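Records of this kind hold a single protein each, on a pair of labelled lines. With that in mind, the following record should read easily:
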Amino acid sequence: MSQHSQFTLLGKRRFLPYFITQALGAFNDNLYKNALLLLIAFSGIIAEEDSALYTNLAAGLFILPFFLFSPIAGQIADKMEKSRLIRSVKLLEVAIMLIAAAGIITNNMLLMMTLLFLMGLQSALFGPVKFALLPQQLHKDELVGGNALVEMGTFLAILGGTITAGLLFDLSAAKYWIAAGVIFFAVLGYFSSRFIPTAEAGDPQLTINWNPLTELVNTLRNARQQRAVYLSIMAISWFWFLGASYLTQFPNLARDHLGGNPQIVTLLLTLFSVGVAAGSLLCEKLSGHKIELGIVPIGSLGMSIFGIDLYFAISSLNISSDLSALAFVQNADHWRMMADIALISLFGGLYVVPLQALIQQRSDEKMRAQTIAANNVMNALFMVGSAAFGIISLVIMKLSIAEYFCVIAIMNIVVVGYVYSQVPEFALRFVIWMLSHTMYRVSHKGIQNIPEEGPVVLVCNHVSYVDALLIAGACPRPIRFVMDRGISEMPGMKWFFRLAKAIPICSPKANSEVYETAFRRIKEELADGQVVCIFPEGKLTQTGEIEPFRAGIERIIAETPVPVIPMALDGLWGSFFSHKDGLALTKTPRRFWSRVGLTVGQPQSPDSISAAGLEDDVRNLLKTNSY
């Protein structure tokens, strides 16, 4: 997969039928929901003074099942074979839409509102299995690309369903077209679901708790057990808070600031949806086909920068006359605002896709769907919270829409800053990603030799002060680096190495306590199943050649027998951070970026480890480098 575009997944049976099924579900949800809102507002079925009540009631009825039934849906998805469950859920959608079509044709508002609740129920049942299926059907290096395609498909389907509802509503005999449409797309979704390959149950022996309230509490409690996963759930929910805040205000923005033409609402929705789709697809390229948390801070920063600029862009506009969408786009005065909306959503896609993939990868396989159910509950809660915050800000506090957008952009900085402070991995990966995409271009071979789990020691030659950062960027697992105490205490980098849980060491003559503490911590980290990396030379090379390996590695393996993997770094000698032509960090950089190679050798049995043998292994790896 790493050599191909994410779009190659659309040619594979293990992904395409699933992709079509979930996109058709999102499309049909929004076709029915928006058609119902149009019928409420414009068909005369209900009194005009009651339209606001029914509009808000409709929104509440659709989202309520996510609170009530997502935890139960998560249990069902963990207990059942997933392709069979998806077919059952899609059959339920067909049945619901058949009844809904009858309500549309007969103008039975009570029946249509009831069926909207049932559509929410069907979506709540589908949500956990929809995302829990991906890690079973995709390889690890396909997970980000798969999530990106799903995110793209979902937002474009929402846009398509919304636009189609408006187009059908404008036709003569609109209610018959809408009724036929929702049935047709439900049947089409069921048909596509029949081609989804089998995906085994995560926990077939699970006993389902059918009490929605107690299971909601249990689901949220279980999600909190893995802090990185839980805070990722909160971060995704914040994305939906922001998204709902923008999308909810687009109609009023068009009416009060952009001339009032309903076409402008569709234009803004299109910009937002296409932006999220583009950002989602960009994730795979920026992440290198792996879950790269380093781009999450980039996404959040972009959302705030362009969210704040949106305030100035809107404030500088003069209200135009009733312009068509085409005339609006042709007016250069509107381009800044349009660009801000598109870029807010693009960076939103960069932000949310790696987080979704992280939840799927790191959650317990037996409880993966339940964890995703907890995510769905929190997403729904935050969307309701966005509505409440909007009322407080716009109605009670009398903020303008532009001011409201500025406030949530500033809030975004505070919220994500808190998340990053609680999960240092985000900040670590951000620094590593920036370094490896600016000053250095890192290529690697044999990275698959590092096991996906379990303790292991990595040994590598030591060329520069950034060796650890570049190795950490290439390795898919967190690494505990053993490094010279002088390097770990470097001004400007000290905070970073502490976040990375680096293990400082020095010679026993310099400080025996630091020396022994380092070995004790190494033993503890390996006992905990972590990856530990050491530089057996004990210092940066002064000549560019490998210095003799010291015997510390032999003591480590004697105390904790685990596999050892030799690695070789090439391309850093002569960089600003190496000792070539003088002390590192004291010379003028000769070039802005360098090509660096990392070669990872085969795991070595702990029974045959020696410092001299590992030194020879690393030298041999350097000879085979061909970057």
The first strand starts at residue 440 and ends at 445. The two ends are 21 Å apart (CA to CA).
